C-alpha cells in the first residue's frame, strides 16, 4: 500500500487523505462472525427484558426447514439491571456485588466483563468513554446506537454487533497505521488536528453502504459488507447501462478463490432503518475455508484459517484449505504469483505442503472408510462437493 518494504515506516507528510477498501479487515470480521470468535462482551439490560433479543420481531425465515437452528446471540452474557432510566437520572443496581468483576492473580478477568454494548439514552458520549460500571468499577463503552431510535430491539442488536466486532477491527486498523508515520495516526485520532503545514489529513474506509466513512467513526457494524460492497460499486459504475438496465454479473478472485456477484437495480424504500447498507447475498466458500473429514463426511468450513496462518501452501504452517485443493488441481499456477509467502515473505506457493496435508487427510479417510481412495479422488471430491452449495446459493440469490 505504501510502497516500502514490510516493517519500514515511510514519510506521509505529503498525504492529505488515505482512502481504503480493505477486504482483509472484512475477512477478519466475517470469520469472527461466522465462527463466533468475536470480542467477549456483556449486554446490560433493564430487568425483565433479558429475552428481548432472542425473541426479536418473531419472524420465522426458516419455518419450513426440517432442522431449525436458532443462531446464538453475539453477547457472552446478559446482565439484568434493576433500574429505570428517566429524564432526571437512574436508580443504581441494588445487587452490585453479584455482577462485580473479579480478577486472577495475573490481572486477567476471572468473572465479569470490562467492555459492554451501550444501548441506553443516558449521558455517555460514545465509544471509548469510561463510565462508572454496574458495581462501581470503570467500564469502557464499546459501542452506542448508530442512529437515533425508539425501538429497543434493533438498537440492541446493532449495539451487540458493534461490541462484538469493533475491537477486532480496531486491532487491524492499528496494524494498518504502522505503515505510516506516527503523526498521521496521532492526527487522525485527535479530532483532525492539522499537521505542521496546516493540513488536516483524512483517512476514510469504505463502509457497507458503499460510501467512505471516516476512520474515527468506522466500526465493526459498518464494515461487515465493506469488501463485496467495493466490488459491487466498482463494476456497477463501469458496467451498468442506465438506458438498457440489463442485470449484470461480476466475478472476482480474492485470496485465490472465486466469487460472483449479481447486480440489478430495484426500487426499494426502508422506513425507520437503523443502518444503511447494500443488499448483498454471499454465495460461496472462500479460499481460506478449512477442509476436514468428520463423521464420515467431507467438510468445508465454517472454520477458516484467515490471513494468519493462511493456507498450507503459504508456507506458514496453516491447515488444509480450498486454496490447497485448487493448487493441486492446477487451477492455481504458482509462477503467476509473486514470491511473498513463507516466514520471510520471499518464497512462492508450495504445492508439496498442500500435497502433504492432503496425504494426511487421505490416510484419515481410508482408515475410517476401510477402503482405498486415491489422492486425486479425494482432492477432486472436496472441490466437487464445495461447488454444489455455491451453485444453489447463486440461483437463490438471483431469484431474490
TrEMBL record:
The UniProt entry's GO biological process terms, in alphabetical order, are:
glutathione metabolic process
Domain Hydantoinase A/oxoprolinase stretches = 158-384
Output the Gene Ontology cellular-component terms.
cytosol
| Record-level Gene Ontology MF annotations | 5-oxoprolinase (ATP-hydrolyzing) activity
* Taxonomic lineage: Eukaryota, Fungi, Dikarya, Basidiomycota, Agaricomycotina
The species this protein belongs to is Hericium alpestre
The record's listing under PANTHER family reads: 5-OXOPROLINASE, 5-OXOPROLINASE RELATED
Note the Pfam families from the entry.
Hydant_A_N, Hydantoinase_A
Q: Which residues form the Hydantoinase/oxoprolinase N-terminal domain?
A: 32-97
Q: What is this protein called?
A: Hydantoinase A/oxoprolinase domain-containing protein
Amino acid at each position: 500500500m505504501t510502497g516500502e518494504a514490510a516493517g519500514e515506516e515511510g514519510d506521509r507528510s505529503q498525504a492529505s487523505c488515505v482512502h481504503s477498501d480493505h477486504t482483509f479487515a472484512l475477512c477478519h470480521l466475517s470469520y469472527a462472525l461466522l465462527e463466533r470468535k468475536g470480542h467477549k462482551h456483556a449486554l446490560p439490560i433493564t430487568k425483565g427484558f433479558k429475552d428481548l433479543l432472542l425473541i426479536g420481531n418473531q419472524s420465522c425465515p426458516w419455518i419450513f426447514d426440517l432442522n431449525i437452528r436458532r443462531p446464538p446471540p453475539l453477547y457472552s452474557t446478559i446482565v439484568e439491571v434493576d433500574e429505570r432510566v428517566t429524564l432526571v437520572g437512574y436508580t443504581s443496581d441494588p445487587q452490585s456485588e453479584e455482577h462485580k468483576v473479579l480478577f486472577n492473580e495475573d490481572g486477567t478477568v476471572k468473572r465479569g466483563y470490562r467492555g459492554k454494548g451501550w444501548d441506553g439514552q443516558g449521558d455517555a458520549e460514545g465509544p471509548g468513554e469510561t463510565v462508572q460500571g454496574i458495581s462501581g468499577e470503570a467500564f469502557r463503552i464499546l459501542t452506542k446506537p448508530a442512529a437515533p431510535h425508539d425501538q429497543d430491539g434493533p438498537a440492541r442488536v446493532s449495539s451487540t454487533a458493534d461490541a462484538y466486532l469493533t475491537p477486532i477491527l480496531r486491532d487491524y486498523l492499528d496494524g494498518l497505521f504502522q505503515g505510516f508515520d506516527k503523526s498521521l495516526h496521532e492526527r487522525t485520532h485527535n479530532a483532525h488536528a492539522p499537521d505542521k503545514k496546516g493540513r488536516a489529513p483524512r483517512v476514510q474506509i469504505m463502509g457497507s453502504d458503499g460510501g467512505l466513512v471516516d476512520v474515527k467513526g468506522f466500526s465493526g457494524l459498518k464494515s461487515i459488507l465493506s469488501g463485496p460492497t467495493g466490488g459491487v460499486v466498482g463494476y456497477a459504475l463501469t458496467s451498468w447501462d442506465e438506458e438498457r438496465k440489463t442485470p449484470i454479473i461480476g466475478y472476482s478472485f480474492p485470496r485465490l478463490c472465486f466469487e460472483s456477484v449479481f447486480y440489478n437495480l430495484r426500487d426499494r424504500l426502508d422506513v425507520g432503518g437503523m443502518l444503511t447498507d447494500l443488499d448483498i447475498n454471499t454465495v460461496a466458500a472462500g479460499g481460506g475455508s478449512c477442509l476436514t473429514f468428520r463423521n464420515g463426511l467431507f467438510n468445508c468450513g465454517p472454520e477458516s484459517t484467515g490471513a494468519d496462518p493462511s493456507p498450507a501452501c503459504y508456507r506458514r504452517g496453516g491447515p488444509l484449505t480450498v486454496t490447497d485443493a485448487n493448487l493441486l488441481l492446477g487451477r492455481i499456477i504458482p509462477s503467476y504469483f509473486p514470491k511473498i509467502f513463507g516466514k520471510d515473505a520471499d518464497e512462492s506457493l508450495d504445492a508439496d505442503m498442500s500435497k502433504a496435508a492432503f496425504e494426511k487427510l487421505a490416510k484419515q479417510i481410508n482408515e475410517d472408510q476401510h477402503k482405498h481412495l486415491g489422492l486425486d479422488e479425494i482432492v477432486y471430491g472436496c472441490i466437487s462437493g464445495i461447488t454444489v452449495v455455491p451453485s444453489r446459493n447463486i440461483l437463490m440469490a438471483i431469484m431474490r
